[in-house]
Amino acid sequence: MNLESILFTQGFGSRRQCRALIADARVTIGDTVCTDADADFPAEDTSFCFSVDGVMWPYREHAYLLLNKPAGYECSRDPQHHLSVFSLLPPQFAERGVQCVGRLDQDTTGLLLLSDDGKFVHLFTSPKRKVPKVYVASTRHPVDDTQLSLLRNGVLLHGESKPVAAVDAQLRGERSLALTVMEGKYHQVKRMIAAAGNRCEALHRERVGGLALPATLAPGAWQWLDEAALEALRSAPNA
Hints:
With 239 residues, this protein is an alpha+beta fold. It has three domains: 3-58, RNA-binding S4 domain (Structural Genomics Hypothetical 15.5 Kd Protein In mrcA-pckA Intergenic Region, Chain A, Roll), CATH 3.10.290; 64-127 and 210-234, Alpha-Beta Plaits; 132-208, Alpha-Beta Plaits (2-Layer Sandwich), CATH 3.30.70. Helix content is 22%, strand content 28%. It has seven helices and 15 strands. The model has no long low-confidence stretch (mean pLDDT 94).
């Protein structure tokens, strides 16, 4: 693949803008500045990287990203009341069409997946796939066994005709519980906790499928998902 096409597919602007970056000697392959936009490189090699303005970029046919979402950010390119989660990412990702894999409320924190692979996005957002998601909720009142039992057996949410049950509900502290759900209904976890007789004060997603949020990833930080992480994501039952 020629260098212009590599930059173009990775979100560095129009073809004309990519050629200008190369002509201005701002692109480096290895330790060598490359000013030939038509030079061919083995982009299909998973170890292939390039630098633009000194910042290293791995070539990826598709972007698979994990963001530790902080509170106060909307999962939208056109946010209404808060900053967009895309403001936490390099602009190249928006340029190449990366989107959120499902959404978290602006006040919900934790594991958020993003990708420009439509099949991947559909796989992990389709209700039919039943991908388990683990949330940790802080509650206003102490959590008791009755509430946990209600959550496991099913609670009736306003506007729903059938009870909704958690796959699992476990106590994490006097006012904290971990809830595993398969669906992605509007404000589902908060509504379930309310229906069980408590109130959700804070909500954090710590796992999707078999992939856990890395403890080393700071709020607001992102990372590429490598093959091991993608395999972990797919390894959960029904994923």
